[in-house]
Design a protein that fits this description.
The protein is mainly alpha-helical. The chain has 19 helices and six strands.
């Protein structure tokens, strides 16, 4: 039998480390493009203020980038430490994009980051600009490969189970790479990162304007952030529609849970603007519905229904029965690889074998499962409906708020009135945490909504853990919490310190600062702080 404590603790550890790591990833994705935009303006106009803007925001970018690397490396160790069977079962598929991402992150990005920070006096303007743009592209390529791997967990295409090796093996890498879920997740996730980077610059610049510091510097920074942020926020909402469509195609239970749709509605399904999901009675109280919206988002049609949770549970019971036939055939092929009947049976039902594996949570041999065990396994495919329901709605509300805030910011910037609306500056400042909240909630919807699957329809999460004791997992979990808490204190201290000091106290701004060298050099004080920020 499976040790549920080990499974729960392993999931908790990975969730904490992943959510913490994802605090840094979106800011890196967004802030690097803002640096590229600012430096492009500097190269085209030759105006010193734009160079100083790049140099200041790059200090905060560097701190965030270093923390992202540190937390990302430790997180990947868990695949071998806590999820050994998962790594064995899908390593042939999952390991390839992760290996490519590792090469890009540590070799390409590492080299480009070094050239970016050390190249101001060693490279020409155009050469340094190319480094910045390649750095922006490199960070996004790293995100692409991570999301290709993650999308395969949501929609496992281009691979087939081998009963002799007991592993999933790649049959078409192009299918893995061009997985429609991967494409939708990539554009949606990086766009969310652009929103995070834009809000970061907007909020800190608003803080300077509230205090009357670095006014010209902050005004220009806010203009770039408002323009880039508005385009990014609109993209998140538009591209979120594509993500919703892929979910309804490949993860019907997740879609039903997000909507708290217990029974199939006549097409096109409505969208619940508000409601209180009742898991015990399988109903949603006080539901406020908008007709047709969910059907149009989820199916892009007027006549295709979205199946409800109860209907999907009944379908799952049938898949479990078919999966048991595949499981029995797999064991027969393990004994006799030439068994033609077993080969044909496995080929017919292999897509449902993962559903039979759900029974291992209740019985050692799925073939010995009772009807009650099958009922429990089918019910276990329902994720936490209230968490998904509210996470999705808060995330969407944040998305529309960002559009409104960036649009108003853009309008004020075009009228040169940014510093004249103190209520707006305070609103922009206090909005700083919201993009991270939305990004984390999006990650919860994507990953928590997939449960109980590590690989959708193929490998239950409970089977992927290593052969550990709960005490061992408690030890590693405690170690990670202490390590990440220390990193959080260091990161918050550094980011707050340099943001509060600002470009004026760091010697970066204004251009008449006596600490600044002539055009083409780098500020002496800035070099000191950058060196401290990047040991």
């Amino acid at each position: 039998m499976i040790d549920s404590d080990v499974v729960t603790l392993s999931r908790l550890q990975f969730a904490l480390t992943a959510l913490y790591h994802f605090l840094f990833v979106p800011l890196t994705l967004g802030l690097v493009w803002i640096l590229a935009i600012m430096e492009s303006v500097y190269v085209m106009t030759g105006r010193e203020v734009w160079k100083r803007m790049v140099q200041f925001w790059s200090v905060l970018f560097g701190i965030n980038f270093a923390m992202g690397v540190a937390t990302g490396v430790t997180m990947e160790f868990q695949f071998g430490m806590n999820w050994a069977y998962y790594s064995h079962y899908v390593g042939d598929v999952f390991g390839t994009p992760l290996a490519i991402e590792g090469l890009m992150a540590f070799f390409l990005e590492g080299t480009l980051v070094g050239l970016f920070f050390m190249g101001w006096t060693r490279l020409s303007r155009v050469s340094h600009l190319l480094v910045t743009w390649f750095l922006a592209l490199g960070t996004n390529l790293s995100a692409l490969w991570i999301l290709v791997a993650n999308a395969w967990m949501q929609n496992p295409v281009g691979a087939k189970f081998n009963p002799q090796t007991m592993r999933m093996e790649v049959t078409s890498f192009s299918e893995v790479l061009f997985n429609p879920v991967a494409q939708a997740k990539f554009v949606h996730t990086v766009s969310a990162g652009y929103v995070v980077g834009s809000m970061f610059v907007l909020s800190i610049s608003a803080w300077y304007l509230l205090r009357g510091r670095n006014v010209d510097f902050a005004r220009r920074s806010m203009t770039v952030a408002a323009s880039f942020g508005l385009a990014a926020a609109l993209s998140v909402v538009v591209l979120g529609d594509e993500s919703g469509y892929t979910i309804s195609e490949n993860q019907k239970m997740k879609m039903a849970a997000i909507e708290a749709m217990w029974d199939t509605e006549p097409a096109p399904a409505s969208f619940s603007l508000f409601g209180i999901p009742d898991v015990q009675n399988r109903t949603t109280h006080y539901a406020v519905r908008i007709p047709w919206v969910m059907g149009l988002i989820g199916t892009r049609s007027l006549d295709t229904p979205i199946p409800g949770i109860n209907n999907l549970v009944r379908d799952t019971k049938g898949k479990i029965s078919d999966g048991l036939l595949a499981y029995d055939a797999m064991l027969a092929l393990r004994k006799d690889p030439n068994d033609k009947h077993a080969t044909s049976t496995l080929a017919r039902y292999d897509e449902d074998m993962g559903y039979a594996l759900l029974l291992k949570r209740y019985v050692a041999d799925p073939r010995q499962a009772t009807p009650a065990d099958i009922d429990k396994a089918a019910d276990a495919t329902i994720p936490n409906v209230p968490v998904l329901f509210w996470s999705f709605r808060i995330m969407v509300a944040c998305g529309f708020y960002f559009i409104a805030l960036f649009a108003y910011s853009f309008w004020l910037a075009s009228k040169r009135q940014l510093e004249r609306r103190r209520w707006y500056l305070k609103l922009a400042l206090w909005s700083l945490p919201l993009p991270w909240l939305a990004a984390e909630l999006g990650w919860i919807v994507a990953e928590y909504g997939r449960q109980p699957w590590a690989i959708e329809g193929i490998l239950p999460t409970a089977l992927g853990v290593s052969s550990l004791t709960s005490g061992q997992v408690w030890t590693s979990l405690g170690g990670f919490v202490l390590f990440y808490t220390l990193l959080a204190v260091i990161d918050a201290s550094l980011m707050t310190r340099y943001a509060r000091q600002g470009p004026d106290q760091l010697g970066i701004w204004p251009p008449g600062n006596p600490h600044l060298p002539a055009e083409g050099g780098t500020p002496a004080v800035d070099d000191t702080h950058v060196a401290r920020a990047h040991p």
